[in-house]
């Protein structure tokens, strides 16, 4: 058994070396805390899926001026890019460039931390929790003793579509980030993208950049697609944390949108969205998710103007179309897929024949379906449970994970998109950098040391 004093000298184990895990590690190392960062894919270390892309057409969805990794140093990314004037600060740079930025920030932190930092290229299979320490068992048989564990697992793979699961490999790609997804395009005439969010936009651009000359149909329940950022950065008038709730709050946002423009109305809520979410009851949150979420998403999570323009050009040329409808079935016919769907607002069905299908329906947040031994083991132990809306892991406002008994655990925490049920807005860089900065202070037992930029 490890004594309590000895446990304090053990590292904090961070499982997941994407954006959230990397930034938490950097912040902890800045406070002199020992860290062991565990990442099973060396290619995704300090990048994750989003910033690990090698495709230059995949741009950031946030302006360079707001992409600093550190809330206490708003100009950090701009200096790294050697950007100075307003036009450069407004640019939406390639995500692969941002991946290089993150990796360099980690390397610099590692160099300064010396023996306090440990990078483990491996998969965490399970965790045994003792009174004063935890032990992480790795796939290679090694065991890491640590004082606490932080789950930084990022987004899980897309929601599976039961009607598409029976289609053969090569005809259906359940995960659009699989490397072969945009290869072998010669001879393909028509592809279907299921889901119309930011990932769908990435897939369309990747197909185009890879030489695809055919047509793309994007199918989603409502046929919505993300709106575009303005060409130049908005001037946002700060607003007080709204005291209205539910439909009254919606009416107030619509009023401000009519007065100032929808971008300013939405951006004005940015500093308050997490608090607004937390003030609403579980029933009210569920109502938002059921009725308003798709409309919030397309206004809140926007495309870079250049990306939006390219999609508009493809749509105008007739090579890209958006449909609203519900999938009904799919079967292979002569090497193609015959997909039936019911158009929104209609009772009958229509059939599309396509050469390939991509699932871009968004991450699957049902923990019971997550294909990770660590997650399944923690579920079996009762150490983790899903939140009330099945958006991820149930945590408190500090990131401490709740077990099935409802009690929070000081030695098991979570950060990033898997904490969406508690924070709602926790998928973009500005939100995650604030979350990990606060969690690092909590774990390091540090006091508040400055303001936060949004």
UniProtKB/TrEMBL annotation:
Q: Which domain of life is it from?
A: Bacteria
In the UniProt record, the signal sequence range is: none
- Where do the FAD-dependent urate hydroxylase HpyO/Asp monooxygenase CreE-like FAD/NAD(P)-binding domain residues begin and end? 13-155
Q: Disordered: where is this region?
A: 224-246
SUPFAM superfamilies the record matches:
FAD/NAD(P)-binding domain (SSF51905), Nucleotide-binding domain (SSF51971)
Among InterPro entries, the record links this protein to: FAD/NAD-bd_sf (IPR036188), HpyO/CreE_NAD-binding (IPR038732), L-asp_N-monooxygenase_NS-form (IPR052189)
**What Pfam families does this protein map onto?**
NAD_binding_9
Instruction: Name the chain's protein.
Output: FAD-dependent oxidoreductase
């Amino acid at each position: 058994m490890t004594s309590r004093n000895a446990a304090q000298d053990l590292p904090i184990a961070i499982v997941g070396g994407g954006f959230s895990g990397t930034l938490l590690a950097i912040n902890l190392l800045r406070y002199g805390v020992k860290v062991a960062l565990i990442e099973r894919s060396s290619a995704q270390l300090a990048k994750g899926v989003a910033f690990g892309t090698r495709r230059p057409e995949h741009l950031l969805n946030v302006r360079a001026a707001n992409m600093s990794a550190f809330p206490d140093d708003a100009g950090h990314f701009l200096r790294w890019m050697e950007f100075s004037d307003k036009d450069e600060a407004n640019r939406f740079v390639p995500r692969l460039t941002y991946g290089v930025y993150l990796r360099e920030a980690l390397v610099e932190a590692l160099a300064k931390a010396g023996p306090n930092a440990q990078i483990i290229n491996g998969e965490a299979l399970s965790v045994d929790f003792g009174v004063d320490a935890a032990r992480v068992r790795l796939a290679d048989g090694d065991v890491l003793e640590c004082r606490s564990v932080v789950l930084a697992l990022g987004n899980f793979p897309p929601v599976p579509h039961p009607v598409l699961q029976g289609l053969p490999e090569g005809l259906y790609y359940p995960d659009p980030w699989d490397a072969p997804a945009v290869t072998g395009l010669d001879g393909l005439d028509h592809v279907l993208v299921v889901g119309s969010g930011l990932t769908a936009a990435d897939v369309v651009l990747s197909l185009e950049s890879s030489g695809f000359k055919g047509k793309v149909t994007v199918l989603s329940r409502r046929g919505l697609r993300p709106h575009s950022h303005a060409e130049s950065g908005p001037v946002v008038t700060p607003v007080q944390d709204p005291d209205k709730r539910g439909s009254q709050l919606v009416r107030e946002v619509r009023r401000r949108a009519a007065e100032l423009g929808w971008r300013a109305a939405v951006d004005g809520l940015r500093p308050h969205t997490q608090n607004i979410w937390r003030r609403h009851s579980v029933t009210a949150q569920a109502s938002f998710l059921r009725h308003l979420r798709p409309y919030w998403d397309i206004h809140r999570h926007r495309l870079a103007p250049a990306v939006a323009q390219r999609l508009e050009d493809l749509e105008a040329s007739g090579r890209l179309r958006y449909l609203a409808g519900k999938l009904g079935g799919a079967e292979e016919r002569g090497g193609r897929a015959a997909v039936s769907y019911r158009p929104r607002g209609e009772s009958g069905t229509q059939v599309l024949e396509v050469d390939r299908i991509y699932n871009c329906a968004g991450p699957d947040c049902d923990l019971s379906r997550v294909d990770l031994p660590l997650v399944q083991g923690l579920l079996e132990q009762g150490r983790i449970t899903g939140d009330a809306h099945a958006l991820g892991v149930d945590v408190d406002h500090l990131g401490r994970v709740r077990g099935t008994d409802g009690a929070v655990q000081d030695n098991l925490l979570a950060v990033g998109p898997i904490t969406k049920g508690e924070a709602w807005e926790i998928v973009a860089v500005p939100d995650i950098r604030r979350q990990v900065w606060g969690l690092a202070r909590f774990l390091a037992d540090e006091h508040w040391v400055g303001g936060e930029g949004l």
